[in-house]
């Protein structure tokens, strides 16, 4: 009998994979399914990025690169961080990684010792908990809900801090809630973070997908926060480049050095071709994507509000809505009692061919996550199906 390492014993079959298998099997049976479970946009890399990648292949820019990333890409990242976020970094502080996911894992791996507590506001992207446990850390969840608009407050943060607390995980805009912290909200958290000498991992991967408010990085708020925050970002969400696998961390010098050393032993450089693509992509962000996402958000909100789902919070960023399903629980639809978010999502998929993600995947069983990073036509059709579910009409 093979015995696995204690750290990986925690891993189980991802519920997301199981859901995707179910969607795929329904599609194989010829069902017309609208899939709003996905965490990726429906747009693609900028043309300049694909051209640069093709050129990289044609000119054999296809060998190892510096394991932290090619200099021009890191320079472009520094320029972006300075101009758009007001954050000054040197290229040596940037590590280009295999997606934001690896940037995050690198950071946790170099900072966390067995038993260190990482404060994790939740509902949260499931990989945070998995990665924290994989490096031997202990997630300390702060359960958030609609009452604070899914945002951490000074009181909630203070109450969660113990002697073992080392890191605060912040994700703004958030997956799955879309909650985006204003400068004022971050300023209220800053003194507590400083008082308890916490390190902040600030996952800013949805930062460009913000509507009608300005994105602020917590690292800009004070000298302490600049020196104790690791900014995580990447190309997957804003540039539709999920498959290119490019992300990065921007960190204080000493931490960046350790991250670079760690990555050099694990994966070394990201694909040279992807790096060339990213180098151009970052110069060519298409803000019309944000306008289109807003249209989709508005359309879906209008439809959701005609159903029994409770959508009190309109998120300021990312591409997810996170309505509350309490009004639906214990009720009967199509002859079935809905006892959980899983029941609801399953029946919705069966009856009207609409796939959404149960909130329990994110520690929020009273909610569901609906991704609207699709064409407006698909979102309108999804809205129609959602309304038809509540009027009792099968698709
Ligand atoms: C909150 C959050 N952070 C990081 C990532 C990582 O993205 P990638 O590894 O594709 O850059 C994701 C992807 O779903 C995410 O939702």
From TrEMBL:
Superkingdom to which the source organism belongs: Bacteria
InterPro entries from the UniProt entry: Aminotransferase_I/II_large, AspAT/PAT-like, NHTrfase_class1_PyrdxlP-BS, PyrdxlP-dep_Trfase, PyrdxlP-dep_Trfase_major, PyrdxlP-dep_Trfase_small
Enzyme class: transferase
Name of the molecule in the record: Aminotransferase
EC number assigned by the record: 2.6.1.-
Keywords carried by this UniProt record: Aminotransferase, Pyridoxal phosphate, Transferase
Gene Ontology MF terms: pyridoxal phosphate binding; transaminase activity
Protein family per UniProt: Belongs to the class-I pyridoxal-phosphate-dependent aminotransferase family.
Species this protein is from: Lactovum miscens
GO terms under biological process: amino acid metabolic process
Residues annotated as domain Aminotransferase class I/classII large: 32-385
PROSITE patterns assigned to the protein according to its UniProt record, in alphabetical order: AA_TRANSFER_CLASS_1
CDD domains noted in UniProt: AAT_like
A Pfam short name: Aminotran_1_2
Stored PANTHER family: ASPARTATE AMINOTRANSFERASE
Required cofactor(s): pyridoxal 5'-phosphate
């Amino acid at each position: 009998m093979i015995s696995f390492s204690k750290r990986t014993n925690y891993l189980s079959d991802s519920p997301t994979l199981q859901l995707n298998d179910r969607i795929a099997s329904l599609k194989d049976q010829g069902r017309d399914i609208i899939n709003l479970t996905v965490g990726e946009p429906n747009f693609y890399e900028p043309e300049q990025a694909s051209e640069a990648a093709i050129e990289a292949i044609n000119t054999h820019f296809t060998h190892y690169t510096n394991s932290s990333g090619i200099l021009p890409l890191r320079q472009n990242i520094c320029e972006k961080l300075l101009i758009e976020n007001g954050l000054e970094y040197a290229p040596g502080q940037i590590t280009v990684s295999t997606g934001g996911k690896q940037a995050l894992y690198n950071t946790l791996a170099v900072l966390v010792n067995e038993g260190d507590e990482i404060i994790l506001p939740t509902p949260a992207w499931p990989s945070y908990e998995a990665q924290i446990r994989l490096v031997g850390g202990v997630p300390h969840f702060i359960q958030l809900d609609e009452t604070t608009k899914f945002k951490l407050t000074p009181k909630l943060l203070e109450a969660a801090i113990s002697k073992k607390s080392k890191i605060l995980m912040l994700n703004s805009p958030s997956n799955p809630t879309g909650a985006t912290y204003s400068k004022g909200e971050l300023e209220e958290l800053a003194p507590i973070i400083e008082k308890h000498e916490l390190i902040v991992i600030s996952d800013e991967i949805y930062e460009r997908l913000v509507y009608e408010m300005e994105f602020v990085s917590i690292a800009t708020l004070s000298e302490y926060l600049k020196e104790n925050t690791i900014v995580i970002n990447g190309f997957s969400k804003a540039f539709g480049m999920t498959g290119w696998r490019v992300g990065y961390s921007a960190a204080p010098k000493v931490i960046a050095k350790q991250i670079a050393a760690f990555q050099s032993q694990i994966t070394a450089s990201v694909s040279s071709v992807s790096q060339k693509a990213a180098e151009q992509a970052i110069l060519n962000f298409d803000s019309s994507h944000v306008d289109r996402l807003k249209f989709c958000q508005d359309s879906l909100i209008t439809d959701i509000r005609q159903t029994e789902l409770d959508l009190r919070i309109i998120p300021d960023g990312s591409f997810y809505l996170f309505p509350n399903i309490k009004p639906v629980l214990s009720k009967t639809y199509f002859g079935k009692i809905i006892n959980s978010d899983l029941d609801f999502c399953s029946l919705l998929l069966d009856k009207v061919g609409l796939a959404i993600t149960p909130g329990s995947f994110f520690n929020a069983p009273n909610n569901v996550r609906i991704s609207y990073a699709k064409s407006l036509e698909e979102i309108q059709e999804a809205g129609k199906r959602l309304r038809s579910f509540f009027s009792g009409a099968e698709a």
